[in-house]
Amino acid sequence: MRLLPHLAARGGADRRADLHEAGYGPGLLAWALDRGLLVAHPGWVVALPGAAPDVVVARRLRGVLCDASAARWHDLPVLTAPRSTSVAVGRGTSRRALPGAEVVRRTVPPEHRLDGPPVTTPLATVLDCARRLPFLDGLAVADAAAHRGLVTPDDVLRGAAALSGPGARRAREVARLVDPRCESVLETVLRTLLLELRLPYELQVDLDGVGRVDALVDGRLVVEADGFEHHSRRAEFREDRRRANALVRRGLPLLRLTYEDLVHRRARTLRLLREAATPAAHRSRSA
């Protein structure tokens, strides 16, 4: 049956009228609904079982997922999880928001939408998040998209340069700092701290006998950004100890920073990084 692959290519949900126009008549839809192959939703929308709720909401509103909701669809991380589903609808439309949804009065040009699912393209998503989300969230989305090859830093620079209006300046600042070497949102936050301190650093550095480290600061301090999901199994625990011991042999101190350190204790972590990156002899002269 071609109906199910067609619906999957449309993001898992679609309006009945659009399916009829594509050649899938009411009889076929009724047959698929009776057999549990499709699920009916309000607003004359049908979906595959397990379809993403955000896509269903976008179809019901006849709009396009945008901003943080589009980032979530593309599996791009943000620091602050969106509380509602953001759906862009054309300016001048009279559609009201649904529970748990935010209607964004914005016209999305066809070239800024995916061909199928009701979602903005990766580049449009990065630029929207850069201009409308808090700076760190926008940079995390941009870094992740560049790391996965969904956009290039040059794409983002050119796109941001063409923006105007509210948030355009912030978007250009995000574009200037995009770094595809960042492998997680925590590494993005760490990088902003090092930039704020004006400390020279390298990301994703391979050290002989140690392996790859998140950041090497001024050639003498290793910094690792640890998320909840890492280093919890015994094998990972042993590997972490081996790496730490190897760093000691190389004379490199190791600073491990958690999510709380990087996100919720920014001022304290800035002081910690500044002190850890300052040579001991210089600290003793300054005391």
From TrEMBL:
Q: Tell me the superkingdom of the source.
A: Bacteria
Q: Which InterPro entries match?
A: Restrct_endonuc-II-like
User: Gene3D superfamilies, from UniProt?
Assistant: VSR Endonuclease
Q: What is this protein called?
A: DUF559 domain-containing protein
